[in-house]
């Protein structure tokens, strides 16, 4: 094998995960402080090289990164896009398979010096091409929120319809018509009331609590029309 062949084989393959959550009705991203060069000490997206000896596929790599580096399991996880080229990493030509993950804020791990939950409106400068990856994830989440049940993965196990509508509005950045929203939820047919479960509304009458239907988990209930 000549030197040219060796250069062609020197491609790094990793996964990067945009982990989003809602804090006080604002979208936040979970960032990790990098421990090693390049960019040691800088806040970045959770990520790492694929472990060929233990990862069944790229999604398994992303799940492992979230489990071992952030301390969470069970987040909604979907593949976003592939980012590649010689300029994205100072170590050389690289490929990053990016994923988008959603998690209710109550499922985040306890505070840690090397984990930061940052509002999207106050992100620091990110290394590599992590800002482009994050922007692509945000565009994906907002786009899918127009026609799917994706935002439910930012909710807890149970929620009222007003709370669910608020989550949609927080993602989309605009108010939604209550009647149209509820009609759309009925059309998608992925919600069910929790029998006998109501949430007190203070001066208002108690509101019915809902949950995703069994088996929903990592699937999306899609419709042909937007909200």
Automatic annotation (TrEMBL):
Domain Nudix hydrolase residue range list: 10-141
Gene3D superfamilies assigned: Nucleoside Triphosphate Pyrophosphohydrolase, Winged helix-like DNA-binding domain superfamily/Winged helix DNA-binding domain
Domain of life per record: Bacteria
Name the record gives this protein: Nudix hydrolase domain-containing protein
Lineage of the organism: Bacteria, Pseudomonadati, Pseudomonadota, Betaproteobacteria, Burkholderiales
